[in-house]
Specification:
13 helices; two-stranded antiparallel ribbon; 5-stranded parallel beta sheet; Methyltransferase, Methionine Synthase (B12-binding Domains), Chain A, domain 1; Multidrug-efflux Transporter Regulator, Chain: A, Domain 2; alpha/beta; Rossmann fold
Amino acid sequence: MYYPIRAVSRLTGLSIDTLRAWERRYQAIVPERTDRGRQYTQDNIQRLTLLREVVDRGHTISQVAGLPDNELRNMLATAQPAPRKPAPNTSIQTLVEFFAEFEHTRANDELGRLAALLSPRDLVFTVVLPLMHEVGERWHRGELGIAQEHLVSSAVRNLFGSLVRLYPPRPGAPKLVIATLPGELHEFGILAAAMISAISGLNPLFLGPNLPAGEMIHAARKTSATVILIGCCGAPAPPAELADLVSSLPEGVELWVGGLTTSEPIPGPVYLADMESFERACLSRSVATP
């Protein structure tokens, strides 16, 4: 699949002038030349996104334009998080009100507009995560019902599905099984994790919420996954099934747990405090795989 430069600009968050300068002056990428002009591949888009993230962390494009993708990921894995761009001309509260009133068309239109304006990472961290947090808070206060929560979840799932297709895994990319354990019905966190893992260079297999531990292990074995990620949605204590999952892990498979707030975690898993920690873990795993 090929993309024109205007689409690449929207997907990477780089202006057209910047894209042309990085290509001509620094040879950061070499797009295809056709009778329709420059045409960019998905690999080009992924590399440009990596370069933009590295530059956002203080490096100059002249320093990093010639580096291979794996080295760029290594730099991101060890760097401080980049400053995030605010969501332009919108309000999380406005989006929540759209969903609260079941105005799904207006909500989806606004999410689509933001997806065109922001890079995938900025979309996750400045729009989707704050939206999920606000919806969760209102649900706990009884201001939103299950139907509205499902509506938000459906919209975000569709949005991530379209974005993840832009980041197909490279050959040999580490596989990551993503789910929640039985009784955990909230999928907001693992939806965000699926997108972050994809743009970080991993190969996510999103299995959704409320999945028995045995099914996760079966999926990991069948796909040769190296990581199982489960979301706990701020649980104050380890789920009862977590110990069973730890004891049944196949050899060579790590268990990552996000959202658990207990001070006495079960030994064995990698506990991730927030999405930035998860992003760094993904980048480190991606870098470690040739």
